[in-house]
Amino acid sequence: MASKYEDPLEYLLYPDRVNYTNGVLLDENDFKAEQTYFRGRLGRALSYLHGFGTVAGLDVVTLESEPHVLRVMPGLAVDRLGRLIELHVPYCIRVQNWFVSQNEDALEESYAGSVADGVSQAVVADLFIKFDTCQRGKTPCFGVGNVDATDAFTAERLRDGVGFDLVIRTQPEAEKPRQYAPYEMMSEGPMDFEAAMEELRTVKLEAGWRESEFWNSAAGNINVGDEYSPEQNGTEVMLARIRLPATDSPMAYNTTGSIGIQNDIRVLSLSADELFWLIKATGGV
Question: Is 0.85 topped by the overall pTM?
Fold first, then answer.
């Protein structure tokens, strides 16, 4: 029950569907393939039509009663695979406990690199939210391998869950979340509608298909961008950049200082209504 569930969407797959015919014997692989097909198609639609990032909520704040505790408020995000990441209740992180568990050399490097930010020195870390799968309940099953075939059990349900990563940054300015590459190529304007539509059409046709850059076809997994740590898989969604108060020589968490939170560094996934409002608000219509 403690085993790590590997999501098939995190590996390069083809959109194969189960072919149902009378008399065909189905096993667990067929039902898993059925789920994977529909989850994969939905994820592909969401990722290409809405992008990735914060959809609603997920504000990162500190508690007034406990200023060294981060609280992530409930909300919804879409990751780079189009999976919905939904946090139903607030989630708290005691940053001082996290701080003392980190490598001291990494903390020192982050502290030294924070001078370029033009504010007081601090240990800089990025907070990510990620899709996770939680196994729920128990149900009997046929044993596999070196187990008693008559007394085996497995998870009864798989729940789409949430996980968090707090990653130390040593070069924070070079490690910001990137939008999809095609739209980084576009002009900032201003330009008239026809010119903007022509540029959008060109970029969409020539660079809009990003699978060859996103997937490592040889290894069958995701190419992890520079904004992620080696331990991450490249689908996590950045929520905020955190500046943690610290003292140097020796490196220690400074309980008299205050935490800085930069929520505006995150990428937003905008709905059609939000885009329409933004266009009107900026004089586009």
Answer: yes
Contact 84, 121 (CB under 8 A): no
For the chain, 285 residues long, give each residue's pLDDT as a single digit of tens. 345 678 999 998 889 999 999 999 999 999 999 999 999 999 999 999 888 999 999 999 998 899 999 999 999 999 999 999 999 999 999 999 999 999 999 999 999 888 766 678 899 999 999 999 998 898 888 777 665 566 788 888 889 999 999 999 887 666 677 655 566 667 776 788 888 889 888 888 888 888 888 888 888 888 888 788 888 999 999 999 999 999 988 999 999 999 999 999 998 998 889 888 888 887 765
- Give the torsion through C-alpha atoms of 146, 150, 153, 154, to 10 deg: 70
Alpha helices, DSSP H, located in the chain: 28-50, 95-100, 104-113, 181-184, 193-207, 211-214, 272-281
User: What is residue 185's three-state secondary structure?
Assistant: coil
Cα 73–74–77 angle (5° rounding)? Answer: 110
Residue 133 pairs with which residues in a beta bridge? 160
